[in-house]
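User: Okay, second chain of the day. Same drill as before: sequence in, structure tokens out.
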Amino acid sequence: MELLFLCIKVFLGRMVDVSLSTLQTMYLFKGKRSLATIVGFIDVLIWFLVVREALNTNLQSIWIALAYSGGYAAGTFLGSGLSKIVIKGTVSVQVITKNTKNKVLSALKHSDFAASVVECKGVHREDTNYMIYAQIDNRKLKDFKKMITTLDPSAFITVTENKEILNGYFGK
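Assistant: Same drill. Structure tokens below.
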């Protein structure tokens, strides 16, 4: 019973520790140093307590190592999901659409997404395309991509993370 309790403590502690570590990295990437510092302090404190508990036991079992590794894996999964929910951010989305009936452009005008549109031509083809530039809240990216691909399944879409944006318009 003591071994089971220790494995649960190690697993849960490591899961929380790695989740916090993932959030800390995301906060650093977004330029939020103070928040990253606080999260990092808590992260390392939990890590220290978990490692001390796992190494200072008289119990010898592979289950402790498996709990530690499993907690790491679960923390990675949980932390990456949490970062998408907790950390507000924007992404740059570029879309090239061959939509000749302007369905995509019309849908954009009637949506909450702000975008700029440029008429363009490909290097190897003379077809007229439209290049759409948009800054999207990362939590609305899925909806934006669904709107575009529903109207033009062959649309070319690229998405990049933004560190900072100055000026411009954001929809509701």
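The chain has a mean pLDDT of 85.

User: Thanks, on to the next one.
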